[in-house]
Predict the 3D structure of the following.
Amino acid sequence: MLTVITHSPEETWELARKLAPILTKGDFISLSGDLGAGKTVFAKGLAVGLGIDAPVTSPTFTIIKEYEGKLPLFHFDVYRLASAEELEELGADEYFYGEGVSVVEWGDRVEEILPKERLSIRILRLVDEDLRRIEVTPHGERWNKQVDKWLDGEERVDS
Ligand code: ADP
Ligand code: MG
């Protein structure tokens, strides 16, 4: 696991924007952390990095929203789902293993159906209002390499 500290929403947004250029179709990013942690801020940065102009908001009620960019972005918020099966019934695999990039808010709630190869990101609030601890866990060989490319030059606390 790698840890990055951000000091503002802009820093979290920028960190996500920097991830976009190394993404390819079928890439999967799971975001977890409490309400207000910054999952949507992260998704917004990712969207801009993918060249998406449309405003990105948490798809809390629709569960999934699709955006057209350099790659399609499938943005999920599974907060309101009762189970992983419900997400499967929505045809999640078609998105997860499809032509775009998937980013799932509250991914830890449906972990059992997530792709084995994925990037897991947990965002934690710290005492200071605008500080966030961003824990990055790569799953699979490709993500191990990609994470180094992504976080090259970032100030990070490795553990
Ligand atoms: P979530 O999607 O996890 O529920 P949001 O991204 O919608 O959370 O909201 C995060 C809130 O926290 C925003 O109001 C944002 O401005 C604020 N915030 C403060 N500091 C940070 C930071 N370092 N990173 C991300 N968001 C931050
Ligand atoms: Mg959100």
Q: What stands out?
A: The domain at 2-147 is CATH 3.40.50.300 (Rossmann fold). The CA atoms of residues 30 and 120 lie 5 Å apart. The chain has five helices and eight strands. The chain has a mean pLDDT of 96.
